[in-house]
Amino acid sequence: MYINGEWCSSEKNFAVHNPASGEVIGEVPDASLEQVHQGIDAAVAALPAWSGATAYERAAVLHRAHALMMERQKSLAELMTREQGKPLKAAMNEVKYAADFLQWFGEEAKRVYGETIPSARSDQRFLVQKQAVGVVAAITPWNYPISMLTRKLGPALAAGCTAVLKPAEATPLCARAVFEVLHDAGLPAGVANLVTVSDPKPVGELFCTHPEIRKLTFTGSTAVGKHLAQAAAPQLKRVSMELGGHAPFIVFDDADPVHAAKGVSLVKFLNTGQACISPNRIFVQRGILEPFLATLESRVAKLQAGDGMDPTNSIGPLINEAAIAKVDRQVQDAVSQGATLHTGGSRLIDDGLDRGCFYAATLLSGVNPQMVIYREETFGPVAAVIPFDNEQDVVAMANDTDYGLAAYIYTQNLSRALRTFEQLNFGIIGINDINPTSAAAPFGGMKESGLGREGAREGIEEYLETKLAGLSI
Length: 473
Ligand code: NAP
Hints:
By secondary structure, this protein is of the alpha/beta class. It folds into two domains: 2-243 and 447-472, Aldehyde Dehydrogenase, Chain A, domain 1, CATH 3.40.605.10; 247-431, Aldehyde Dehydrogenase, Chain A, domain 2. It has helices spanning 33-52, 55-71, 73-84, 88-108, 147-159, 172-184, 200-209, 222-232, 257-268, 289-302, 321-336, 372-375, 391-399, 414-423, 456-461, and strands at 2-3, 6-7, 12-17, 24-30, 115-117, 124-132, 135-139, 162-166, 192-194, 213-219, 238-242, 247-251, 279-285, 340-343, 362-365, 382-388, 406-410, 428-431, 450-451, 464-472. The strands form five sheets. A seven-stranded mixed beta sheet has the order 14-15-16-13-12-17-18, with helices on both faces. The protein has a six-stranded mixed beta sheet with strand order 9-8-7-10-11-19, sandwiched between helices. The chain has a three-stranded antiparallel beta sheet with strand order 5-6-20, with no helix packed on it. A hairpin with a 2-residue loop joins strand 1 and strand 2. Helix 7 (200-209) packs parallel to helix 8. Residues 139-144, 168-170, 200-201, 204, 219-221, 224, 227-228, 242-245, 276, 377, 405, 445, 450 line the site of NADP nicotinamide-adenine-dinucleotide phosphate (NAP).
């Protein structure tokens, strides 16, 4: 753990496993609640100096951290593959994406502008300034174990906030490596603190009730996000919530079915489907269903699962046994209700894969609203295809979910693309594009997918208060 600029241990440790082999790859301290208090106290003590530093001074630390993270890109990626499972190439991309937030917000720190507002009174002037929210508590998930940290710490530190962060239990080694970068970049003691714990509940409660914490930023499941938002409500703490998704991927019959199927095969199986913006419901207009399915089936059948350190593998393991059970339950339910299983559909156990949590890349078609997979976030390597007849129907079907994070549209008709974009109730929409994300672009969801945005100009606003001065002259 990293508290007040020092690396520290605890009375107890917990083990970290490689999900591809089950092997123990390290252990980290299991913080006592007293140590979490120490992390918060350190952030409180560091706040005046850090928020009082110039934006240029804060930016310099973030730029050094960006450079160091890129210098360490390969070793960080290898650690991520061993701890979280994604193939090395995807881990390299994630480290670059993570470093981008440090650079982007280092630049953005210098653009926290105020304004003057005309008054109705001739003897009055209004002056608006922005200031740091204060001490921030952050809770992050395991599926993007480096970029989810910098997407929060980048803007928080740029704005002048100090922070205490609890990473997911499954990926504390990646979190530690991020804090090594910050330490080596010269971040002053106490500005960012890391506490690793095996039981998240008491820490979550402390983050939500500690009077000195002014903001909670969380990425994870909708169920936990709702619970934390409720617990933070009595003190009216600011909250940012990046929660679950159930992305529709809509392919209209004027799109090239081969190109669209290629897009699905690339984005759906990224991170073994363990992404909040992963397409979960693939709506294909009936006229092009056949060529679309033929292309997708041949591509999915070729996806090879295995240890992400081997470059021939494009699918890594799921994070744990519970994830395997959830995916299998959704697949078996769909098949038992009449869905067609084109390929996959079971756990992989041959050639040593039984030591890890591997599930075959799976393609289902004929999925309908009665099936669990139609309603529930999948978080696994299953492409579920649903036919549709017209634009009006598909917009209604796509919006028929409590989630509102990402959506995708494939069409060659510009008017249809814009009409659909405007009617879909999702925060991030790819139009003939499978990667609508960047440090420069606002990321976040509508409805039960969350509150607030990360990245972009909006990302730093989440860590700023607006302060007004009314002056009589
Ligand atoms: P999760 O179970 O909600 O866990 C997320 C984090 O919350 C972990 O650090 C976890 O700690 C912690 N946590 C769990 N219960 C808690 C409690 N009662 N109090 C305080 N903290 C608690 O979610 P996950 O399974 O790790 O992540 C997958 C979910 O995240 C999916 O739904 C996915 O869509 C969503 N996600 C959203 C985004 C986005 O930007 N919208 C990005 C990535 C993932 P432990 O690890 O110790 O349990």
